[in-house]
Description:
The protein contains ten helices and twelve strands.
Amino acid sequence: MTEWTILGAGALGSVVAGLLRRQGEAVSLLLSERHRGHLHPCLDLVTLVGRHQLVDTRPLFAEQAGQISCLLVMTKAYQVVAALKGLHRLPTNTPIILLHNGMGVAEQVQALYPHNPLIVGVCSHGAMKEGDWLVRHTGKGETWLGPVNPAAKAYADLARPLAAALGHAKWSEDILGLQHRKLAVNAVINPLTACHDIRNGQLLEPRFAAVLEQLSEEVHQVMVQLGETESLDDFRRRLRKVIELTATNYSSMHQDLAQGRPTEIDHITGYLLAKAATLPVPVCRQLYQEVRRRSPA
């Protein structure tokens, strides 16, 4: 049985660790130096129905990277490369799975670990950290994995245990298209909710109708330039559905700004701006600049 090593014991990483353990999977958490010498307690997972479950995991540190057989990276996008640089003993046959918001990181990881099977994914589960080692599963969603390099194509079966734990997980050879679809939604919801200090569902209030219309059109234009074929109407319907399904949630970017943490704006809106080239995307640019202005240096 493969042990899942999770790098990034934040809200979603901890929830995924808990859900895997509930299915009997072996799970270790790759911890940072600040956790060394401290008690490593059980995770307290609050399930979707409000039940508390204690989840035990094995602690690992960077010098034990040689023991990692499957690495699930669930840090923020801007933390991925720095976190991986310290894993000098990581075996070259260990698959690396990147599950984070935004895009533009996989290319850097591939340069850092050119021989490792590299997998990227999208995950729409909701999670919230409510205290040290206390996390709440706030919403169920889909998970998709797919290969970045040829070596990764031998690991499609990793989706099976994830599906048993998360309720849905599938392998897709067109993972880039799925990443684009998630990025497009995030590029609308995240910066708007962060800048206006609102829950996702408040975006459907009449006061946001005009900006939603223009921003969704800008984002869709960039997606078309990237080769996506989804129509503007279909994108807007999909966007509205996500907003409705997550109406009571605060976006991750809102939470980051509210708590004085760096955001993933460079890997979401910043990525779109880089791909927009000469396309006029003034609302995207304005939101990008505003989030950057409010973010900690």
